[in-house]
Amino acid sequence: MTSQPHMISRLRCLPLSAAALLTLWATGATAQPAGDPLPSWNDTASRHAIVAFVDKVTRAGSPDFVAVAERIATFDNDGTLWSEQPMYVQAFFAFDRVKALAPQHPEWRQKEPFASILKGDVKAALAGGERALADIIMATHAGTTTEEFEGVVRDWIGTAKHPKTGRLHTEMVFQPMLELLTYLRANGFKTFIVSGGGIEFMRPWAEKVYGIPPEQVVGSSIKTRFEVRDGTPVLLRLPELNFVDDKAGKPVGINMHIGRRPIAAFGNSDGDLQMLQWTAAGPGPRFCLYVHHTDAAREWAYDRSSHVGSLDKGLDEARAKGWVVVDMKNDWKVIFP
Amino acid sequence: MTSQPHMISRLRCLPLSAAALLTLWATGATAQPAGDPLPSWNDTASRHAIVAFVDKVTRAGSPDFVAVAERIATFDNDGTLWSEQPMYVQAFFAFDRVKALAPQHPEWRQKEPFASILKGDVKAALAGGERALADIIMATHAGTTTEEFEGVVRDWIGTAKHPKTGRLHTEMVFQPMLELLTYLRANGFKTFIVSGGGIEFMRPWAEKVYGIPPEQVVGSSIKTRFEVRDGTPVLLRLPELNFVDDKAGKPVGINMHIGRRPIAAFGNSDGDLQMLQWTAAGPGPRFCLYVHHTDAAREWAYDRSSHVGSLDKGLDEARAKGWVVVDMKNDWKVIFP
User: Which pTM value belongs to this model?
Assistant: First the structure.
């Protein structure tokens, strides 16, 4: 487990990446050969590598054949399945939640970091560092039952829009990755999310958006406690960190939840590096892929020096080990659905 | 979570239930109607209740129809899927492991609780209470990589035999429950183990024995740490408790791993009560079942005063709420395969 709680620290850099902003992109559907499972992927090396791997692990008689039960594929979420700029979607949620809860907390108008959030000054809110971030997370993610929190997330994700694109966040998922998820499942893979984001923040919509059911979502979490309230059992969300599913935490989370080593893993940042290392180190055929954000026109372009989703060591290791590095600009015909 | 670590405390009562010992049983296969999915179940109220529930949640047009994705069924392991007397199988494993590791620990011959275990005096070994139990667990379950531990468990479970029956522990699973697992899966249910036992102790054999894959096993755990050793990534098992999946921990573990509330839950002790309460409290059709050990001739007979697998409060609540209580002696034609 990382010593620094990522679910919190990942919020720290929110307003800093404004330089790389989305401008315009083309989403026009292009004609595809009938039955092409990956119509949004250009005919480049990335696509070839994906198809070749799936073929060799699924074709009867292949020396690299892998039994269906062992076809485990894990996907990071932020920056791998949907956009993460200029800040993680869960950070948008946390700030909106502070505003929504403010009427029940009149003291927040005088109390940082809430006072600055309510004034719209995110930078000042975050001047308080880790302590401020922990306060924001716990004030917005704890204190409800699990069912209440699920309802809050469902309501928010159904209406909240990205400030730059005006789209729902769930419309800013990557069409080529949706096709890849479907393609893998059609070939007997079980697909999991393994994200630094909150497990209970993703589960309410991951099945609808990605086709990934709650029991296949691994993420960071706070503790819960079982209580019987007036005869009704509830799980209460506590203001206490339980697990940080990032960096060296990702293999730990994979082992805890899945109990098998993936044969394929997909990420976009250094936060995914240990998941890819763990995947690559298993016996038999392995597939590791980084999504490299290279498209400032249609999405964002960032890597080594990004405050959100930095890809630095991972990029070097991917090149050294021959992992697939998707060039979003050249490999993907469209970005969003 | 419980304040008392059950994975440890469950070991405390090992030698005390010797009064109720297995004698003989008949396992002769009996003729069944072709296609009967539950041939080892007598034609009693328990069987009727199971079949009626499955029918109403799966029949198209039924007012109680439940979508396949929501057909989650959770099963306790010890005492529900296999025998747990005179002590938990994992306790047999821990003691055998102390003996196997003893040559590497010459100091154990002078050090409790190990010295007493090596002399075969379990009662004296456990005189040290919680501290002794924690020492046994950590000495036998931590200090290896996850892959090494998996190999140790596989080797042990493939050869270790129950001291009274002379059978492999995996041959002391309950045939009617195996049929029930298969029957539920054939009706679109996803079956999970939710056990106070160690998650990494169950996963190596649960798929072969129960048809339940590693990603559908929830249990107690110690912490792990990701490390790169001489270029090879490993997960090291640490002598530190991570999660206790028992009593009030069961709904917590279910929420963490599954993220949906079961519609059916199966247990045999008060350690399962909160899982059954959590299951029963959801909306729509629900099914809760206790296996009541009533067959001293073919297995063991115990409930309220048992040191292992006590069923006291749960028995009262089951009767008050109309949950199914399986009478092993009268409801099951055979116990073991």
Answer: 0.90
